[in-house]
Amino acid sequence: MAAAQGIDPIHQFEVTSLFGGPVGTATFTNASLFMVIVVAAISFLMLVGTSGRALVPGRLQAAAEMAYEFVASTVRGTAGESGMRFFPFVFSLFMFVLFSNLIGLIPYTFTVTSQIIVTFAFAALVIGIVIVYGVYKHGAHFLHLFVPSGVHPVLLPFIVLIEIISFVSRPISLSVRLFANMLAGHITLKVFGGFVAMLLGAGAYSVIAPLPLAATVALTAFELLVAFLQAYVFAILTCVYLNDAIHPGH
Amino acid sequence: MSEAGKDDKDDAALRARLESLSQQLAQKKEGAQAPNPVGSDLTGGNVGQAMTLGFRVMSEFVAAIIVGAVLGWQFDTWLGTAPALLIVFLALGTAAGFWNVYRIATRPAGPRRAGDNTK
Fold it and tell me: Is A119 helix (H, G, I), strand (E, B) or coil?
């Protein structure tokens, strides 16, 4: 069992109940625990980081301010100044995804964003807000999102259908991209780590065990990049979709 | 007396430094904003960024086809028109997939049309 656990690359994604018993609707699982840890880490960074209000920021304050500036410039650049009313939402989303990804890179932790249900819930929330805000703000005019101007009337029904399919595919691509990146990255890391363990136990072949070890080190650095970039892509696409709700019509 | 003079001097030096720093900041901001509307996603030679963009293109393309197929299949089940709508919606989904990819290629980081549409 112990040897199989070292090699089984899927085991790390298993959701288990922390206090025994089967996993039900309201069970406190390892996924819940790491969500709490992520939120606690973000709260620590933002609350402690901004509590000093030093004119010359220390490390923690600089990190908190950088996070704010980064997301704010992303929102402004993508959705415009009127998109800033969604800044709290985008910022929470970005920080949660980023911290889940980063904390998940630490060995023996659980990656919350490697669960499709989590990422899909986020994507559904984003699209839900886009639809609700778009209809609330623009009423029927929001439907102009699906009707590009300057299209021949014969072609229009097809274009509208294509636009609708394209719109429906957004939450799916948004959630699957983040989930698949995290899942694939962690499986790759685990498989290469398993190679090291297997080669070390394979007699004379153990001389090439450092090769997969080096690959693991390189992959970890790469995963760090992916963790950040995926959080960024998630945030920027959220802004792009929110921009459609703020300014519908092409 | 001499200390007050020193303070004034310090103040002036600090103010001059602040001014030059804010000037530099403004220049940097302009420089950072200039290449942005063109689409930094496509021009970034960085491997990570390129992979992210590639993965984005792939996922949006595949997602549109899957959505088309599921919609067609569901409408078929509801209307009893066995394979007809599945084929039609699969084709539409593929078109939507290409449309998604085209959109990513033409305006990678999203439109910057805040100025022309808000007011």
Answer: helix
Reported pTM: 0.78
Residues A239, B110: C-beta atoms closer than 8 Å = yes
Task: For residue B4, give the amino acid letter.
Answer: A
CA A172 to chain B, closest CA, distance in angstroms equals: 6
Residue A84 lies in a domain: yes
Rounded to the nearest angstrom, the minimum Cα separation between A170 and chain B is 7
Cβ–Cβ gap B63/A233 under 8 Å: no
A83 to chain B: which residues are within 8 Å by CB?
Answer: 114
For residue A86, what are the domain limits? 30-246
Query: Phi/psi zone of residue A57: left (φ > 0), alpha (ψ -120 to 50 degrees), beta?
Result: beta
Domains in chain B: boundaries = 1-34, 41-118
Structure tokens at B33: 């904003």
Residue A9 lies inside a defined structural domain of this protein: no
In tens digits, what is the pLDDT along chain B, a chain of 119 residues? 455 566 777 888 888 888 888 888 888 776 665 444 444 444 444 777 788 888 889 999 999 999 999 999 999 999 888 788 899 999 999 999 998 898 888 865 444 444 443 33
Residues 6+ apart with CB under 8 A from A45: A60, A63, A64, A67
What 3-state class would DSSP assign to B44? coil
The amino acid present at A174, given as its one-letter code, is L
Q: A230 to chain B: nearest residue by CA?
A: B52
